[in-house]
Design goal:
Shape: flat
Strand content: under 5%
Radius of gyration: 16 Å
Helix content: over 70%
Order of helices and strands: HHHHH
Structural class: mainly alpha
Number of strands: 0
Length: 147
């Protein structure tokens, strides 16, 4: 499926930028990989495409990678917000699909991963020393572009 190949290319580019510590560039590639999949997701789910589960897994990976770049930038609120919205979207999709849909199990499994990651970041945020800084001062404008 060409869609998955394009997603992989964007992820590889994001991973390279992530490894270089270029968070904004990594954000760009991860965000575009997410948007690419979301553009085609409803069609894939509607037609019960056999690779629907794989697309859900790829979408979840993109969200997880983007959330980690936010975390590396100390943008924990943005990170948690992204994961929360993605989790909500996965739960909504799950409620609209039949149990035998090709994406049903992947949605359940990936929603669990997103929930676990979200709570991990929340716990880290609560244990971080504040040192006179506030999270409220962080720019969250990039978060609003996902959904």
């Amino acid at each position: 499926m060409e869609l998955i190949q394009n997603w992989k290319m964007l992820q590889r580019m994001g991973n390279y930028e992530f490894e270089q510590g270029q968070w904004q560039n990594a954000n760009y590639y991860y965000m575009n990989s997410i948007l690419l999949l979301r553009e085609h997701l409803s069609d894939i789910l509607k037609h019960q495409h056999e690779q629907a589960g794989e697309v859900i897994i790829c979408l979840s990976i993109g969200v997880q990678n983007l959330s980690e770049t936010y975390n590396r930038q100390n943008r924990v609120n943005c990170c948690v917000s992204l994961l929360s919205r993605a989790l909500h979207n996965f739960q909504q999709l799950q409620s609209t699909l039949s149990s035998d849909h090709p994406a049903a199990i992947a949605l359940l499994r990936e929603a669990c991963k997103l929930r676990q990651l979200m709570f991990t970041y929340k716990e880290e945020e609560q244990t971080m020393p504040m040192n006179g800084t506030t999270v409220a001062g962080h720019d969250t404008s990039a978060c609003s572009r996902l959904h």
